[in-house]
Predict the structure of DNA-binding protein S1FA2.
Amino acid sequence: MSSDGSAGKAVVEAKGLNPGLIVLLVIGGLLVTFLIANYVMYMYAQKNLPPRKKKPLSKKKLKREKLKQGVPVPGE
């Protein structure tokens, strides 16, 4: 009786991979592919796109920065 039970387990184990493992491998593969694609696009953008322009400073902020540096502001 015990030989029948172990033979049944051997057939089930030899059947194939665990479905949970397959799902895990597929999700892991997609995640790795996504990360590699993001890195490749990032490197491409660094080489080919111009640098971002800074936002223009308002006149108040410009005056404040110049006063901090000790540069006389024109018009005052």
